[in-house]
């Protein structure tokens, strides 16, 4: 049974894919949007969403006891977000996209492991996050493919 909260998170998650897809499209056709390249749109949006997910994860885990692997993954996901930010600043497009991709994978991994302790691994939220994470990761891989 879906609760309004689950429906809202699903809607927001699905709507959150649109900027990734649009930025990928603009990158592939080589057309700027609002004067910004598809790469710039994609990488900055990706960094913002990864930071948001990292913050949401911290909010979920801050008062819970997590094992050493969970701590390692939580710290790693934050380090990956910072590394992606540095890669954006130094202007190495493929490196920043690759690091952002690793960040999304690690945040999902930490979230899935933490939710296993609280809910069934087949919870609707976790299933929705898995599908959205797969789509976002595929779009990152597409952005890594040379298309100029």
TrEMBL record:
<protein>
    <submittedName>
        <fullName>DUF3429 domain-containing protein</fullName>
    </submittedName>
</protein>
<feature type="transmembrane region" description="Helical">
    <location>
        <begin position="39"/>
        <end position="58"/>
    </location>
</feature>
<keyword id="KW-0812">Transmembrane</keyword>
<feature type="transmembrane region" description="Helical">
    <location>
        <begin position="125"/>
        <end position="145"/>
    </location>
</feature>
<feature type="transmembrane region" description="Helical">
    <location>
        <begin position="79"/>
        <end position="105"/>
    </location>
</feature>
<keyword id="KW-1133">Transmembrane helix</keyword>
<keyword id="KW-0472">Membrane</keyword>
<dbReference type="InterPro" id="IPR021836">
    <property type="entry name" value="DUF3429"/>
</dbReference>
<dbReference type="Pfam" id="PF11911">
    <property type="entry name" value="DUF3429"/>
</dbReference>
